[in-house]
Amino acid sequence: MSRITHVGIVAKSHLQAATPYLLEVEAWLGARGVGAVFETATAALMPAPKSPASRVVADKPALVMEVGLVLVLGGDGTLLSMADCIAHAGRQVPILGVNFGSLGFLTEVTLPELYPALEAALDGGAHVEERLMLRATIIHPSGPPQSGVVVNDVVINKAAPSRLINLAVFVGDEFVTNVRADGLIIATATGSTAYNLSAGGPVIEPSVDALVLTPIAPHTLTNRPIVIPASATVRVKPERDEAFVTLDGQAGFVLKVGDEISVSRADEPMRLMRAATRSYFEVLREKLSWGQR
Fold first, then answer.
1. Which of 76, 84, 153, 182 is catalytic?
2. Is residue 7 classed as helix, strand or coil in its secondary structure?
3. Which of 18, 33, 109, 141 has the most crowded Cβ, counting Cβ within 10 A?
4. Entry pTM
5. Domains in the chain, please, with CATH?
C-alpha cells in the first residue's frame, strides 16, 4: 500500500462523544504531517478552528476521492455507509473502524487501540482484509435498472405487514426453489453475523468465498438456509405480490411482480483494516458469548 498522506474522518451522526477524539486525531495527524479531511456532518461536531482554512471539510463522495484511508468513529452502520460510498467511487481505500460502545463485528478497534492502529496504518504495518461485496441490480421490464453495492446483505421482505411473499429463486439460470416466507436474505460471509444470524442462518468465517441464502420465517420447514459459491449469480422474482428490497439496511427499493433482482460479486472488495490484538473468533466469542453459561 502506498504512503498515506491524507486520512478521511467520519463519525457516527450526532455522536457528541466523538468530539474530543476528533480534535485529538486532528492534532495527532497534523504532528505527523498527515492531512485530515473531515466529513461535513462530522466537522459540525467540532468547535470551529482558529483559522477556518486550516481544516479541510468535504462531503462523503468528495472525501473518498481525496484520501488514502478512511477512519470511521462509530458503529458498523457508519462503516457500511462509507464502504458503499467508496465502492460507488470506484476507489480502493481501506477503512479503519473504531467502535464507540460495544465491540462491533466490523468496527472492532476499541478506543484505547485507536492510536496504535492509526500508527500501524500510516507505517504500512496494518493488516488489511479484503471482504466480498455484492452488487444488487433490480431489472424492471419497462424502465432503467436500479442498483447498489452491499457488504452484508440484500434483504427481500414482504411489502404488506400481514402477508407472506412468494419468491422464485434461481442460481445462475438454474431454478432452485420457491420460497414462501416473510422474506429472503442473501448474505456474504461478512454479513452472516448480521440479519442472517438472527434469522437462523449459519456463521461463515469471512475468508470463505461464499454466499448464504436464508429464508425469513419460512412457511414450510423444508425452506432452509443454503450456502453457495460467491461466484454464483442469484436471481429472485416475486410471483404474486410486490416486495421491498433493502441493501445493508441503508437503501430500499420496491420489487414489483415482473421485476427481477440479480445479486452477484461486486467489482471490488471492501478493504478493512483489522485490529492486530484479536482474531475473528475472539470477536465472535465476545459478541456471541460462546462457551459462557
1. 76
2. strand
3. 109
4. 0.92
5. 6-131+269-288 (3.40.50.10330), 134-265 (2.60.200.30)
